[in-house]
Design brief:
The chain is an alpha/beta fold. 38% of the residues lie in helices and 20% in strands. The longest helix is centred in the first third of the chain and has 13 residues.
Amino acid sequence: MPSPLPRRTVLSALLAAVATPGLLQAQTAPQTPPQTPAAEPLQIALAPFLSPGALLAAYEPLRRQLQVVLAQPVETTTARDFKSLMTATRRGEHEVAQLPAHLARLAMVDWGWQMIGAPDLPVTVVVAVRGNGPVQEAAALRGGRIAMLDPLSLTATVGRRWLERQGLGTAVTAVPMPSVNSMLFALDRDEVQAFVGADTQLLSLPAATPRGERVLARVEGIPGPVFLARPGLPPARLEALRRAFLGFQPDPARPTIAANAPLKPLAAAQLAALDDYVVQARRALDSGN
């Protein structure tokens, strides 16, 4: 039979355990590893040039790639109209906003937003009429109704300039509509005589959208919508966003549209060429129209 430990030895061992916090617990229960906080989602506000469902579907490949590269959740959203989007942008409600190029220029100059990139894709603004309709020249639009996105959109701004050059600035009625597919439904129902949109937008339409339009006029060389980063981001975060967006790989199985094109920053000359449009946009925002 083994001899009992001396009383002094037992007391010393117990005192050592008490003097070392967690020693006894560590020997009987495993430690719970610290929880890593969930990453905050990157929120991207998209310009509302299509219906919400069509718009979010068009930008889904970009969203998925950004989520992988940035290793964080990415959420895309949009706004009711361009004025609402600009109000949210002025307030800095989203880390990244996508704006028509002239509104992006305004946000950079007036509110300090930072360039990320725009589609490396030439955009043409088109004025289109019913393919089987009577309009064969611009003069035939006099007294008619022309569907456009809301007045702050770049396509509507370019379209109004084109109408003015045709001597039709006050001779037609501009009808704001929420999306390009809405315009095509209105054209099909003969509610409007023409519409103004971007050629790339016509490649992003839902399958149910009526087609059969005929292009009456084209205005080429218009920059596509621009992704911007909110002012005040840490330099490392801004650089990470730029790398992720500019590294986007388009899906070769999908049409080449603004949502499925390589991205690159707009050159200074391209931005400066938008300044006349910026003046009009600033006036519209300041007046509340």
